[in-house]
Amino acid sequence: MKIFGIFGDPIEHSLSPAMQNAAFRALGLDACYFPFRITKERLEDAILGASAMGFGGLNLTIPLKEKALKIVIPDDLAEAIGAVNTVSFGEDIVGHNTDGLGAMKALEEARVKIKGSSALLIGAGGAARAIAYTLAKEGAEISIANRNPGKALELAGFIQGEGYGLEDLERLVPQADVIINATSVGMMEGDPRLFDGNLLHIGQVVFDIVYNRETEMLKDTVKIGAVAIDGVMMLVYQGAKALEIWTGLKPPIDVMEKAVREELKARER
Ligand code: NAP
Question: 183 C-alpha vs ligand 1 centroid, how far in Å?
Fold first, then answer.
């Protein structure tokens, strides 16, 4: 049996084990996918250990994606993004990044036009880096707002966009065609709003990459009548691309989506 896994800290919230194990079953693979709580300090030991034990592949999540760059050999995309969320084991231990592609596919599926659009990206962490890079490649004009404005400016410089602090959202939100929340705000019940929902208007798209609950930002979007997209399909597509990298097989997208939605429902109970 091949072992796969996801490393992160915390890791209990991850839906990837349910999603990837469902995919392995559907593909008839003798494989199993487990969550492992791994701290930044032990990441190198853990990756080398997984390699020594013949693991089939890994995903990495908070807070390991940037640190992993220095441990594995990143492919061109992971190097350009500056973060690794997927590791494959062959002759070399190679780092990949499938987050940007996952976000892009979720937007495409919702028929959102990116080329030439004005995109407001909130956040400047690992996921935001992947999305910023991908949106810039697809021809969006990007503004980035972050709690730490220095990080927004740094990321904006990297993709020739504009960087701001969160206090600028009041002015930026009404002007944007597509608004993307790539912060962790909204993951927890009771999290504050990043901006007043009344700043939104019909015709805008709001993509919140948080996937574990319907966030206040998405509730506000639905109330206003704008297009709301949650993080579930990004999760599915980034995981599907990882599965394809590890196995070379065509991922069963429907099975993976169903597994995620069922797991989310089970956790509500
Ligand atoms: P990260 O690298 O730790 O970045 C976190 C981001 O959130 C930073 O921009 C940070 O701002 C901001 N932030 C955190 N707490 C905040 C607060 N109280 N107020 C304002 N901003 C705050 O994390 P990540 O890997 O990018 O993940 C971010 C979120 O995306 C998580 O919810 C994660 O689950 C989700 N995600 C979803 C998918 C998917 O497939 N749907 C994939 C990847 C990630 P500072 O820079 O100022 O600290």
Answer: 3
